Amino acid sequence: MLSTKRKSLGFTLIELLVVIAIIAVLISILLPALSSAVAAGRKIRDQANMKGIGTTGQTYASDDPKGILGPVHPEAINFIGDGYAEYGGGPGTMPYGNWNQEFDPRTRPFNHLLYGPKGVVANTLPGDRALFGEFQCPGEELGWQEWPGFNSDPLETETPYFKGNGAAFRMNNLAYEDGTSVGIYGRPVNQIPDPGATLGWMEARVYQTLWTNNTWGILQHGELTSYHRKLGFFNVIYADAHASFADFGDDTYYQYSYDYNEKDARGSWGRMDCYPLPEIPF
Q1: pLDDT of res. 36
Q2: How is the chain split into domains, by residue range?
Q3: Residue 192 φ/ψ, nearest 5 degrees
Q4: How are the residues of the chain apportioned to helix, strand and coil, as percentages rounded to the nearest 5?
Q5: What are phi and psi of 11, to 5 degrees?
Q6: pLDDT on residue 34
Q7: For 96, which DSSP code?
Q8: What is the strand order of the sheet 233-238 is part of?
Q9: CA pair distance 208, 145, nearest whole angstrom
Q10: Is the distance from CB of 248 to CB of 206 less than 8 angstroms?
Q11: Alpha helix (H) ranges present in the chain?
Q12: Tell me, what's the pLDDT at 93?
């Protein structure tokens, strides 16, 4: 009788171990799929937020007397090359972007459209994800990538761009030290020659590829880590408000054009410049 009980107990333990092993195998199979599904969902939500910004840009342009798509903040003229996220969003840890500073969220044009002139109250800290959801990236958004020679500010490097600037997405303000701009920033919609191919807003590291691309980038060449688990790929919104998950990795940039004084930026993903139309002086 005792021997029978031992055999029964032995079989029970063996069966339990088999079940545990099967469960472990199933988990090992399902977890990557689940992780991929979560990442895909974040990418889609990110695109939805960016489409909302693109639509807000269209609304802004239709109301603006000059039809400008990429709004010029009242203080931005003093910060060409510095502002980047002053079009909308929350407070940031970067200079000029917090409450009672030059790019106070209450002064940002898109915030007026989305929340009303009195809809933004100074009660949030930089990086607080409870508000300004339209300007957030639900993916693994970590601002600029640490890169040899890039020398970006630690407040927006390997830390969310949303926390640093109040918005995870950078406007296409392709500008130069001579005070000219060839992106959509400050440009009327009728001076954007190819809206379906011209970037309007982008995840920050897209702009960083201007320096790291392997065609004419001046820094160490290489593909940047995506916020959505696909090397070199990032979400962008075009001037016509459609979104894309585009490849900015190796061999996606085209060579500069001498006709545009090497200020154009184009690739298989589209373009940042608005040539042949004139540059916009600031």
Answers
A1: 58
A2: 2-281
A3: -110, 100
A4: 35, 15, 50
A5: -65, -35
A6: 47
A7: T
A8: 169-171, 199-203, 233-238, 243-247
A9: 8
A10: yes
A11: 2-63, 109-115, 161-165, 204-212
A12: 96
d(CA 43, CA 197): 20
The bridge status of strand 280-281 relative to strand 266-267 is: unpaired
pLDDT, residue 281, reads: 80
Neighbours of 164 (CB within 10 A): 26
Q: Please give the Cα distance from 208 to 147 (Å, whole number).
A: 10
For residue 160, what are its two tokens? Answer: 């969310």
**For position 240, what pLDDT does the model report?**
96
CB 12 within 8 A of CB 4: no
Give per-10-residue mean pLDDT for the chain (282 aa): 50 70 68 56 79 94 94 77 78 93 93 90 92 91 97 96 95 87 93 96 96 97 95 96 96 95 96 94 76
Question: How big is the chain, counted in residues?
Answer: 282
In this structure, how many other beta carbons lie within 10 angstroms of the beta carbon of residue 220?
Answer: 12
Please report where in the chains the tokens 């761009």 appear, as a residue.
161
Nearest to 226 by CA among 254, 198, 245, 199: 245
Rounded to whole angstroms, how far apart are CA atoms 61 and 76?
18
